[in-house]
C-alpha cells in the first residue's frame, strides 16, 4: 500500500496535467495570449483542487479497506469466545457441567458488551490519568465515525470501540476455566462485572490508552511492548484465574476422584476455532490492513504451530504418547505467548517463542499444578498466565524495529526495539509491565472475590456441585439422548 | 429354558451376532455395559495427568433358548468371540422358569 500510493499519485498527476491541453483551458489561453499569466494561475488552482480531491479519495479508499478488515477481525475475535472458548472449556468439564461452562463464556458476550457501552470503553480508552480512563466517553459519547488519530487514524473510532470490546469479552471468559464446575452463576456475574471494570479496563488503559503508564507509543512512563494483549488479556486473566482457584478451593473430590474431560472432541473443535479467530486478535491489532497485519498474522501462525510441536514432543517423551488434547492445548499456549510479540517479531522468533511456550506450559499443567495441588480446573493459569508471561518477556528479547519501528529518538529516527537489537533496557520495561499485570490481577481479584464472597457467596452448595451446574444453576441438561425416543 | 448371558469384547459383537444367526438363533438383547474381570483396565493421560480407567466398555448379549439348543449356541459364541487374550469375557447360563409373549400371552418355549 505504501509503495503503491506514490505511483498512483504520480499517474493521476500526469493525467491532470494532460487534461487542460485538450480541454476548455487550452482554447481560452490560445484565444487570448495576453491573459497567459492569469490563465496559468487558474490552471494551477484547478490542478491543486484536483490533487486535493484525489488525495481525499485515496485516503477514503484506504480507510474503507482498513475498516473492512477491522470489522471482519472484530467478528473473528468474538468467534473466539463463542463458540471457540465455550467449546474448548465445555469439552474439558464433566458432562453435568457442560452447559454451565459454555454459558459462562456466552454470557460474557452479552454482559461485557452492555458494560462496555455504558462505562467500560470510557474507563479503558477515554482520556484520564496514567492508570485509568475518564468518564468523558460514557454511554459512548463522542464515539462516532470520526477517527481518533491517536488510536487508529484510518478507521472510525466506533470500529476501534467494537473491536476492543471483543477483547474485553474474552478476557473475563478465560478466567472461568479456573473456577469451573463450582461457582454460582449469580456470583460469577457479579465477580466478572466488577473484575472487568476494576482490573481489565485499568490494565487496558495503562497499556493501550492515551497517556497510559505502560503505553509504548503514546507516552508511557515504562513503554511496554504488548501488541495484542499478552499482559492486558492473558497475564491479567491467567493470574486472576490462579487467585480464584486458590480462593475458592478445589472441586469436591479433587484430586482423588477422577474428572477427565467429557468430550475432547468439543475441545478440539473449540481450539481450532480459537486458532482461526486469533488471526483477528493479533493481525487485527495492527488496526489497519497493511504490511504490519501480514507480519502479525504470520508470526501468530508460526507461534501456534511451534507450540503444538513443543507440547507434543514433551508429552510424548514423558508419557509415551502424544495426545490430541495436548497438541491443541499446545497450539493455544503458543497463540497466547505470541500475542504480545505478534507485531514486533519475525517468523523465526515466532517459532522460538511458540516452542518455548509449548514446552513450559505443558510442564506448568502437568508438573507444577500437581506439585502444588491447586485446582486450576481447566488450566487458565497454566496456559494463559504462564504463556502470557513468557510471551511478554520474550517480546522484550525478540522485538525488532525492522518489523515495527515503534521507538523513535527525539529527532524522529527509529531506534532499537528489543534485546537482540541491543536494547537491553526493554527487558526491564517488559518486566515492569508483567509485574503490574500480576499485581493488579492478584490484588484486584482478591478484593473482588472477598466482597462477592461476603455478600452473595461464591460457591454452589455441595449438593448442587454434585448435581452439576447444568441442572442446579440453569435447570437444563446438555445431553438428553436417553430420555428422548 | 436357559438364559445365555455372554459378556464379550465390543469389537466382537458383529462376529457373535452373525455366528448366532447362522445357527438359527432368532432373537437377542444387546446391552452396552462396563466392567472388568482379571483385565485391569488401562490408563489415559489428559494434560499430563494420569487417569486409570478400570471399568472397560463391554457388550453383553442375552438370549433365552430351549435347553437342547444351548450347547451349540455357546460353542458358536466361544468360537466367534475368542481372541485368546485376557479380556475376552465370560458366558453365564441360568435356568429360566417361564417365557411369555406380550403380544398374545403365548407361554413356554413357543414364546421364545
Mean of residue pLDDT of chain B?
92
Distance between the termini of chain B: 9 Å
- The CATH class of chain B: Alpha Beta
**How large is the radius of gyration of chain A?**
26 Å
CATH class identity of chain A: Mainly Alpha
> Number of DSSP helices of chain A?
15
Instruction: Give the ordered list of helices and strands of chain B.
Output: EHEEEEHE
* Beta content of chain B: 35-45%
Total strands of chain B: the figure is 6
What report would you give on this structure?
The complex is a heterodimer of chains A (485) and B (112). Chain A is built from 15 helices and no strands. Chain A has one domain: Orthogonal Bundle (Ammonium transporter fold). With 485 residues, chain A is mostly helical. In chain A, helix 1 (4-22) runs antiparallel to helix 3 (36-92) and helix 10 (324-338) crosses helix 12 (380-398). Chain A has helices at 4-22, 24-31, 36-92, 98-125, 157-175, 185-208, 230-248, 264-282, 291-319, 324-338, 347-372, 380-398, 425-455, 462-467, 469-474. Helix content of chain A is 67%, strand content 0%. By secondary structure, chain B is an alpha+beta fold. Chain B has one domain: Alpha-Beta Plaits (2-Layer Sandwich). Chain B contains 2 helices and 6 strands. Chain B has a 4-stranded antiparallel beta sheet with strand order 2-5-1-6, with helices on one face. In chain B, strands 3-4 form a two-stranded antiparallel sheet. The N and C termini of chain B lie close together (9 Å). The chains are: A mainly alpha (485), B alpha+beta (112). At the A-B interface, helix 9, helix 10 and helix 11 of A face strand 3 and strand 4 of B.
